[in-house]
């Protein structure tokens, strides 16, 4: 009866409706709910004890744990500095918790992991990175196309046209792309007055 006496006033106070519900923000009603602040990194470790505590927090060995040096710029706090490693560089024979990304549960990821979501080979130096390497690749590619264009148009005979040109002259040569000095033209017209035909007078 004592329990019924405690529950009955609560039932009377509640609105008799199955659609309308009040949102409760008490700690008891929000049990198990996480917020963004719960995933924020902690303050930058300044002592050895704080560094060991942060390494244990992220499940890393103390000798492998190293926080970001420019934590003031990025706001990384005690988050570990992890170099990005693509899926292609990880072993395919290890039993991963997530086989698609080759990661394990609670494994710390690089701070800019969302930059590499659709890349599988990041971490490899496959592309030119310095200004000198990029200039060499650019001018090398452009120069190759220029040389091919020059040799193909000057040292290799091109195909003839489908029909010979009829007016005002025709070419007598291997093709229309040869130099003008190597082309003989047949003139089909003249400015001389026409000779009268015999018996026209």
TrEMBL record:
The keyword Transmembrane applies. The keyword Magnesium does not apply. This is NADH dehydrogenase [ubiquinone] 1 beta subcomplex subunit 8, mitochondrial. Keywords: Membrane, Transmembrane, Transmembrane helix. It comes from Magallana gigas. InterPro entries: NDUFB8. GO terms for cellular component: mitochondrion. The chain crosses the membrane at residues 136-156.
